[in-house]
Write a structure and sequence with these properties.
Blueprint (H helix, E strand, L loop, with lengths): L12 E2 L8 E7 L4 E2 L2 E2 H8 L6 E7 L7 E5 L2 E5 L1 H4 L2 E5 L7
Antiparallel strand pairs: 1-8, 2-5, 2-8, 3-4, 5-6, 6-7
Length: 98
């Protein structure tokens, strides 16, 4: 019996909802929404928050869980929650080791 493929995009959520220690994969960055004088989504794309990149949630501030510390590759970023809301992610697939 074959296991049905799961549509991972149905599991998409804003980066701000990911848990500390979780690794997720970017599936979409929302652009075209100017906030605070600029397009936050466009700035995030320019920083490397692009579709397919793995992101690890390092820490959250206290109180209010802000800022959110995330790591892409070897670079760590601090994002405010409204910035992280522009980045949509899906859970990373577990790695298979031989």
């Amino acid at each position: 019996m074959a296991i049905a493929a799961i549509d991972r995009t149905a599991l998409a959520m804003p980066l701000s909802r990911a848990a500390v220690g979780e690794t997720v994969v970017i599936c979409k960055v929302v652009t075209g929404m100017p906030e605070g004088g600029g397009d936050v989504g466009l700035r995030l794309l320019e920083l490397g928050f692009v579709e397919g990149e793995a992101v690890r949630i390092i820490a959250q501030g206290f109180p209010g869980r802000e800022p959110l510390a995330v790591r892409i590759g070897n670079t760590t970023f601090a994002l405010r929650r409204f910035e992280a809301d522009h980045v949509w992610v899906v859970p990373a697939l577990p790695s298979v080791e031989s």
